[in-house]
Design brief:
Number of helices: 10
Largest sheet: 6 strands, mixed
Number of strands: 10
Amino acid sequence: MYKRCYGKINLGLDVCFRRDDGYHELAMIMLPITFYDELIIDKALYPRFSSNKSYVQSNPDNTITKAIAYLREKYQFKENFDIRLNKHIPTRAGLAGGSSDGAMCILAVNELLDLRMSDEELKEAAMAVGSDVYFCLLGKPAVVKGTGDIVEPFDFKLDPWILLVKPKVGVSTKKSFETLDLKRCDHPDITAIRNDIINDDYQGMITKIANSLEEPSFRLVPQIKTIKDELLTLGLDVALMSGSGSTVFGLSNDEKIIDQSQKIMAKKGYFVRKVKVVR
């Protein structure tokens, strides 16, 4: 069975407050993008995991491993799987590559074993694997709240080109949250951004998007701010870090600007990719 594991960008990310349980309350606009890992999984006599990237291993931190372990415990099946992951989305990039891998593994096992999981059971499995996994499982533009457990899909009719640019170094989400100062960081109005999107107001949207985690991530990896400034200088309409970084994305309705910027940023040694929102 073949699954595309689509990445995402955050068109807005507000860290609202720190909860009593130690987690942070979030409000985000998340969009699936046409950049994906490839998961090939089938039933097998013995478990096997392989990847095109040597750093991707079948260990307890791997979201695919977590997904299978959760489902095996929940549904008590004995089957093993032969899994091949063709990894294209960089790690520690703020693009939810690992989360999407785990989400598609849940869907694949559900289909392969005919588990007939309900929507609520799929959600429970996704949340057990990771905070962005439920969004990736649904795979639609959405407002995402709480710890990722509240996902409210909406129509995204705008069609800008998106340029992803990532420095070689990544950002630890844990460190980004640990160094976050809620009084200093941006707090975008997620509802207002959503309303602009629904009303096809591109200009209104780009004036409002922001990310609470930019400030700590800029301090952890200064290159992120450098990339953001460079993209704006090159003429993109807006540039923003995705998630906790280290990927920065720029938006433009002019494909020529995107293509020219892609060439320039690639020559500087950055990872670059031109994408769209998944339709």
